[in-house]
Design goal:
The chain has 15 helices and 15 strands. It has 466 residues and is α/β, with parallel strands linked by helices. The protein has 2 domains: 180 residues, Alpha-Beta Complex (Aspartate Aminotransferase, domain 1); 244 residues, 3-Layer(aba) Sandwich (Aspartate Aminotransferase, domain 2). Bound molecules: 4'-deoxy-4'-aminopyridoxal-5'-phosphate (PMP). The site of 4'-deoxy-4'-aminopyridoxal-5'-phosphate (PMP) has 16 residues, from helix 6. Keywords: Aminotransferase, Pyridoxal phosphate, Transferase.
């Protein structure tokens, strides 16, 4: 059993790591070590903590991949999965249905902004984005606008690892060595105020972004553009918060040009920003579709989906092509176990976690902000319970320490020693702990991060890299 779980026992943990090096291809590997990577084994989780293969307890700083929203080892979630699997573990979704998927859709629609009324379930975030885009293509085909298919995306974006979703990704390293459907995608600037042109204030920067958006549409022609896809807060790009009012202005331009606005809330939904959905409640926008995943089950089961506007569905129902089929579905669409655990997870969020997340968020942000005292730190930014510590060579040039691209990895290594898992992103560290984190635990997390960054500064100085 130990060899299978890696829990607690250091030797069993080492075996698992060795077996992985021989047989496992890990996600996001480097060519030089693909299929042979040694990654830290995580054996157990409990609340905001995880335990590594050596039995060392760490704060789960990134909550898995922004997903363990209600925390690890929730017995009620484990139990509901067991009970549902014992009652009905699967049904064939293209001619039968199950009750948990319908009930979850009703509750999701209740929380969704505008006229978003129906849910299409997927297996995660990439398949949710893929579904929204294929739905847009189908919608325009049925409306007799087969040329209206281009997709607007932005620098800094991350939308997934399936082919079309990945084609939207705007971080250079996601595309440097990878192909994509470039003929379908138009890239715009990242709405990153930290890296706005020198001497420009944020309001002028917002005007510049909006002007770019309008100009590109005018240049290409709205009749060729099907959708804009954007994260309300660019998560994997480094927790990039757009300038005030930017999202509302982009939303209005999309509406004026019959371009579907797809809000990718794979990270921001289900509590990360204190609400089930952030589009309406935090940013005041009503998208045509919202994609979600991760926090919908707090990572206990692979589930995602798209919430779709009633207006779009109504248009399809009234089309001249009642026989046209949206030929799109996954074996695990509407999975009963996933939907059952999501329902229980939503109960927990509504009953205890959302209010707590809203209450501690200002403290979380204020404590992290104190790290700007450290000279390596260029900026700490964030919203709700997501934040990014961005390191720079110097604050004047904002040079992202390209000489030492692994500064985030160095900070993570020190923090691991000290009891905190950090998500390194080149020169940045992303923090997005389970939403149940207490004020005392936030103090611990920030103290460790401060020490990890201080030790990294010493290393860089000693090695003459900074
Ligand atoms: N969209 C966003 C905004 C994401 O952050 C991610 C994953 N990090 C995805 C989509 C893809 O989700 P998944 O990994 O579940 O396919």
């Amino acid at each position: 059993r130990q060899a299978r779980t890696g829990g607690g026992d250091a030797e069993a943990g080492q075996d698992a790591v060795e077996t992985a090096r021989r047989h496992l291809v890990q996600p996001w590997p480097m060519a030089g070590s693909v299929g042979a990577e040694a990654r830290a084994l995580i054996g157990e989780g409990d609340g905001i903590y995880i335990t590594d293969g050596n039995g060392k307890r760490l704060i789960d700083g990134p909550a898995g991949m922004w997903c363990i929203n209600v925390g690890h080892r929730r017995e009620e979630l484990a139990k509901v999965m067991y009970d549902q699997a014992m009652q009905l573990s699967y049904n064939t979704p293209w001619y039968t249905m199950n009750a948990p998927s319908a009930e979850l859709a009703r509750r999701i629609a209740d929380h969704a902004p505008g006229d978003l009324s129906h849910v299409f379930y997927t297996t995660g975030g990439s398949s949710a984005v893929e579904t929204a885009l294929r739905f847009m293509q189908f919608y325009n085909n049925v409306r007799g606008r087969p040329e209206k298919k281009l997709i607007l995306s932005r620098g800094g974006a991350y939308h997934g690892s399936t082919y079309l979703a990945a084609s939207l990704n705007g971080r250079p390293r996601d595309r440097d060595w990878m192909d994509g459907a470039d003929d379908l995608v138009v890239k715009l600037s990242s709405p990153d105020p930290f890296r706005r042109p020198k001497g420009m204030d944020v309001a002028a920067f917002a005007d510049m972004l909006v002007a770019e958006f309008r100009d590109r549409i005018a240049e290409i022609g709205a009749e060729r553009i099907g959708a804009f896809v954007g994260e309300p807060v660019q998560a994997s790009g480094g927790v990039i918060l757009p300038p005030d009012g930017y999202l509302k202005r982009i939303r209005a331009i999309c509406r004026d040009n019959d371009i579907l606005f797809i809000s990718d809330e794979v990270v921001t939904a289900f509590g990360r920003l204190g609400h089930v959905f952030a589009s309406g409640e935090v940013f005041g926008i009503d998208p045509d579709m919202i994609t979600f995943a991760k926090g919908v089950t707090s990572g206990y089961f692979p589930l995602g989906g798209v919430v779709i506007s009633e207006r779009l569905l109504e248009e399809l129902r009234r089309s001249n092509h009642p026989d046209a089929m949206f030929a799109h579905g996954l074996t695990y669409t509407s999975h009963p176990v996933g939907c059952a655990v999501a329902l229980k997870n939503l109960d927990i969020l509504e009953d205890e976690v959302l209010a707590h997340a809203r209450a501690v968020a200002p403290y979380f942000q204020a404590r992290l902000k104190t790290l700007e005292e450290l000279p390596l730190v260029g900026e700490v930014r964030g919203l709700g319970l997501m934040a990014c510590v961005e390191c720079v060579a110097d604050r004047e040039s904002k040079n992202p320490l390209q000489l030492d691209r692994a500064v985030g990895v160095r900070i993570d290594a020190h923090c691991h020693e000290l009891g905190l898992l950090v998500r390194p992103l080149i020169n940045m560290c992303v923090m997005s702990p389970p939403l149940t984190i207490s004020r005392e635990q936030i103090d611990d997390m920030v103290a460790i991060l401060r020490e990890g960054i201080s030790r990294t500064m010493e290393d860089l100085r000693r090695e003459g890299l900074w």
